[in-house]
Specification:
mainly alpha; 434 Repressor (Amino-terminal Domain); 56% helix
Length: 79
C-alpha cells in the first residue's frame, strides 16, 4: 500500500501580506517577536516568509498578537 504524506502548509505568503498591510518591515517584525520572548533575527523571519522554516505554535500566537488578526487569516487560500 502506498502511503502519501501530506506536506505542511506554508503560511509565508499570507504572513508577508499581513505584515506589509500593517506597514512593518521584516526587521521590525523580528524586533516585535523579541518583545514576546521569541529570539528571532530578520534573516530567520525571512525564512518563515519564504517557507523554508515551519512556524512553531508560540511564534504563530505572537504573530497573531502583533498583526492583530485572526488565526484564520494565516491559512486563507491554503488547501
Amino acid at each position: 500500500m502506498d502511503q502519501k504524506i501530506k506536506q505542511d502548509q506554508c503560511i509565508g505568503t499570507n504572513l508577508q501580506r499581513l505584515r506589509t498591510a500593517t506597514g512593518l518591515t521584516q526587521e521590525q517584525m523580528a524586533a516585535k517577536m523579541q518583545l514576546y520572548g521569541i529570539d528571532m533575527s530578520r534573516d530567520f523571519y525571512a525564512h518563515i516568509e519564504n517557507g523554508s522554516y515551519n512556524v512553531r505554535t508560540s511564534e504563530l500566537v505572537a504573530f497573531q498578537k502583533i498583526l492583530k488578526c485572526s488565526f484564520d487569516d494565516f491559512f486563507k487560500g491554503l488547501n
